[in-house]
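Appendix B. Raw example, untouched.
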Amino acid sequence: MGVCVGRGTLTTMTFTASSVAANVAAIRARIEQIDRPFTHTVDIVAVTKGFDESAVAAAVAAGCTAIGENYAQELLSKRTAIEALGARVHFIGQLQSNKVRLIADLVSVWETLDRRSVIAEVAKRAPGARVLLQVNTTGESGKGGCAPADVEPLVDLARESGLAVDGLMTVGPTGRPPAAARAGFDVVRSLVDRLGLSSCSMGMTADLEVAVAAGATHVRLGSALFGPRPRA
């Protein structure tokens, strides 16, 4: 069984390696059934936020070698498992410049670059790193991301800084029906295509179908794989 990391406590969860494998297979089958004008493969980034190393192991065993982490300290606590299993870490949380140096050697893809200071710090601590720029398509102040109009100059800046810009990332609106995310997803997909990028990371458990239909290349899934996290 898995363990969920709460605030100062460890809570036993009910996921197992076999249940995660079954969930991954079911999600891949759902993706294949979605009507979309795209033929690319959609990769699952297994978001292990709140869970211990057993979630990383279960995800990798199920074929999800990309692990999504939101917090620097939590990522560091899983170093041993990540390195032993060869998992590729996508950092998907809001990125603070002063945390970059702590996790630079563990992160394979930085998904949330959204301003000049963060671009500069990642370029300094992880030269040549693969990155995505986060785009705020909802206008919500609590979400990270640059405005769509700022994407192109930030892409240019990141490239000039020596970073490998793979694509863009976005998060759908909070507290809205899944369909409400479609307009923002379309904006990001259009920018990816116009700028000649390859990766389009968008969609989580609730809006998976909407994201895939809009052209996501990566979906970031946590509860769909491991079940709900307990309240902190």
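End of appendix B.
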